[in-house]
Amino acid sequence: MSRVVRLKHVKRELDSSDLSLPTENQQIVRIVASKGNNLHEVESPNESEQNFLVSMPQKFRKNFWIKRGDYVLIEAIEEGDKVKGEIVRILDKEHQEEFSKNFVWPKRFTKKRSHEEENDSDEDDELPQNPNRKNIEINSTSSDESD
Hints:
InterPro entries: EIF1AD (IPR039294), NA-bd_OB-fold (IPR012340), RNA-binding_domain_S1_IF1 (IPR006196), TIF_eIF-1A (IPR001253)
Structural class: alpha+beta
Protein name: Probable RNA-binding protein EIF1AD
Keywords: RNA-binding
CATH superfamily: Nucleic acid-binding proteins
Organism: Polypedilum vanderplanki
Family: Belongs to the EIF1AD family.
Strand content: 15-25%
């Protein structure tokens, strides 16, 4: 199968309205960092667990990119010591809303998500000053008073 045909099938699979809930062996996690070689460090919804590595399957490689803060659905790997899971699905906002309605979305991710949105809206209101320009204050009242 050529690369283009394979990409078409993978995109169709991800774009389909498959909003099925995670099974017992699957877990929703957040990407913390990319470690290279298609390995990603993820944060578990359980606060007691430490961060661990998951692998990206061959069908997603060079076709889709995930960044820090994205949510993915993983399936646990029993034989892995360092790599404890494999990415099954990359979750978007539609998945997050559907999982929240069905009370499947982890509470740990919900709280931080709303806090991040508040901070983002505050930052958009004010633009930072350009460091390449000098700040010159002109007082028009002082020049009028001297005349």
